[in-house]
Amino acid sequence: MGCEKSDKEVEAPPEDTNDYVLHLPRALNIEEKKYLLAVERGDLPNVRRILQMANNANVTVKSVDVNCMDSLGRSAIILAIESENLEMVELLVVMGVETKDALLHAIDQEFVEAVELLLEHEELLRTNELNQEQPPDAKEIVHSWQRVDAASSRYPPDMTPLVLAAQRNNYEILKLLLDRGATLPMPHDVKCGCDDCLRCATGDPLRLSSTRISEYKALASPSLIALSSSDPLMTAFQLSWELRELAIAEPENRVEYLRLRRQVEKFAVDLLQQARTTAELNTILNHDPQEDGAENPKQLARLELAIQYKQKRFVSHAHVQQLLAAIWYDGVPGFRRMSSIRRVGIILKTALLFPFYCIIYLLAPDSRIGQLLRRPFMKFLIHASAYLFFLLILILVSQRAEVEVLRLFGNDQTSRLLDEDLMKQRGSSPSPLECLIVIYVVGFIWQETREVYVDGLRAYLRDLWNFIDFTRNTLYVATAILRVAAYMQQTAEIEVDRSAALIPRERWGDFDPQLIAEGLFAAANIFSALKLVHLFSINPHLGPLQISLGRMIIDIVKFFFIYTLVLFAFACGLHQLLWYFAELEKSKCYSGISDPEWDAASNACIRWRRFSSLFESCQSLFWASFGEIGLDTFELTGIKSYTRFWGLLMFGSYSVINVIVLLNLLIAMMSNSYALIEKHADTEWKFARTKLWMSYFEEGGTLPPPFNIFPKPKMFLRLCGFYKKNAAKRYSMRRRAREHKHSAVMRALVWRYVVNAHSQHEMEAVTEDDIHELKSSLSSWRCELLDILEKNGMDIAGIDTKEKTIPAKRMRVWERRLMKDYQFAGPVTGLTDEDNQEELALQQPLEGEDNIARWKRVARLAVLRSAEARWGQLPPKVTRPGQS
């Protein structure tokens, strides 16, 4: 169950201490001890005789309570279950011994035969209760395992047989319970705000949290998922993601939830391991229960869900990777087996001829080359080549390639015209290379728009590389807008004054639109170059480094939260301390040579900026981390020695905290992240590579930018109706066939998984419990043999009925505690629960009470209170000095 706080704060009711009564097992008499010992040893004849005497109606005083318990709270039927003595359990149940929570103990011990027997007994009890006449306001039936004292029971009150069987992951017991209609409702969401969750959260939050963990332990059982789910893989994916969210929502139980998540992920991987053919693997990974009526169903839909739910072990499994590799290199068969020279030749050929390939695909998409370009590997090479060409254009623009080419190959007249054009720094139109960049940017925007339309906004935002693409495109669009605005503004100025075109850059305004556009263009180029890191995922050597880099960036972001706080704190202090002297230094800087005290070598025009404002102080401290700020910064005009000392002390403290503490903390965080990635390098890299591969498996998006902005002939054919396909009936039949095949494959995988699990369980080595079970069986057989001999008239007087064998240590310890009335309870600091109830009853006078009865009541009350005072004291020898 889950819960969340309501808008109105609800005060928890005061704790009631009178309704909590602990009923510990009472002391046993000698006959009851013999009775429990006989049950433990498997002495069926003696136990049968004791039960017959206890159930004899002619006996007025019964010396044996057949439902008695030892000091550990174990009744006779529980002792028989722990010994796995089915005959003894059957005898006790038939003779009317109360089962109580014996079913839970049998499930806990994985005693399947006893579970089946107790379930039949429970159904018989329920049938008898239903046949009895019930009042109209009668409550629902209470099961046997619920009729125990919650305070002294071994299991929590919310524990049910199905939950316990699922936690033990016993397939056979779960099958018995599910066949009898046992159900396990899904827990409420952790953020649920229903009345039940709010009541539990305000009344008993510990029980709510414990119950939720117990239920999820059951839901994470591989056997329960295999038995109850028609699509175990989908159930495992969803449950794994839910456990991940619970680990974030409840950090107190994070370790337990993450352990359950790993268990569910392992089940999905083990189920995948049972696939034996490519056909079975295709059926599993291509299943999509929510597919629409498309002619071609979505490829690898189940694998996309695995990536969405971050099932890294499932995605990186050898079966999945082998299938993906076969699809990836479909267009170039045998590529991985080629020599290195031949592979490099294919890549270079594609990189140099990609414009011609794209033009051929535009004109003839169904040709041989057009069909080849639809293959994932060729599509990747085409896109990568187009993007590398875009980066080449950026490099040429940054190096002013047009100017250098004209100077290199032009004549004198061309050079003269070029120099005249360069003098006109304002009002210049974009160059041909810049126009080509604009076309590329339009293609990038169209590509991102199509991805959002096809995959959805949520799926688009899940990929962090899309944020880099979005930032890059936004910066390029902002650059284009500012360049247009600057061109219009400068053109208007030139029309008024022709000399405005010759104004040099150093005389422009600080926030001139063209200067801002150039700054944004430079930032966009950085993001464009960084996008190449995404392509490293394809390489087994660079892929793990790229993943480590991504993890370290997260560490750097977390580190900068602390670093920014320290930086801001010291910047505030230094600015408050030195602002006045920075103003004096500024006045000295702007005074000029007219001031007799002005010194050209004093660097006053540099020092005054260091701490003149809070922003400048933050910048100064930031660059101080790289050694760009020295102690001469504090040699300000008019500064006093005391102020200078405090400034140097603050600066030194900042340097110590920043360089020694925080920098080493960052190094430790990055080293830890790299170690984690290195530990799971293969899994992390294959998962990242799969995400890159999957982006090229989708239909459409064959042409890279900027060729994707040009309309294709098949688009006009579709608009004219030549590509219409009416396949509703065929689709319905194919979908039913796919559903049937998927169901059959999943049943086969589950069957193989269960068979392998049982085989591994049977191959386990013999344990100490198996030896104890064998000893118990021999003891029971010995007692039965002696009983048979005695009934047949043989003389067994000379045979010692006691066992000659030495019992196990666990048995000896239990017998000793049983015979000596050993009780497991805490120290007595007052009256017992029975005495408390008696005292409360004696405080109330009875109706018609005479003097003698009143005197007895008061005397008994005084005895109880004196006992409370006496037992509430500590012995003098164990009292520490100063303890009252």
UniProtKB/TrEMBL annotation:
It is found in: Membrane. ANK repeats lie at residues 157-189. GO terms for molecular function: inositol 1,4,5 trisphosphate binding; store-operated calcium channel activity. InterPro entries: Ankyrin_rpt, Ankyrin_rpt-contain_sf, Ion_trans_dom, TRP_dom, TRPC_channel. The chain crosses the membrane at residues 346-364, 376-397, 560-582, 645-667. Residues 192-254 form the Transient receptor ion channel domain. SUPFAM superfamilies: Ankyrin repeat. The keyword Repeat applies. It comes from the Eukaryota. Pfam families: Ank (PF00023), Ank_2 (PF12796), Ion_trans (PF00520), TRP_2 (PF08344). GO terms for biological process: regulation of cytosolic calcium ion concentration. Keywords: ANK repeat, Ion channel, Ion transport, Membrane, Repeat, Transmembrane, Transmembrane helix, Transport. One of its GO terms (cellular component) is plasma membrane. It is a multi-pass membrane protein. PANTHER family: TRANSIENT RECEPTOR POTENTIAL CHANNEL (PTHR10117), TRANSIENT-RECEPTOR-POTENTIAL-LIKE PROTEIN (PTHR10117:SF47). This is Transient-receptor-potential-like protein isoform X3.
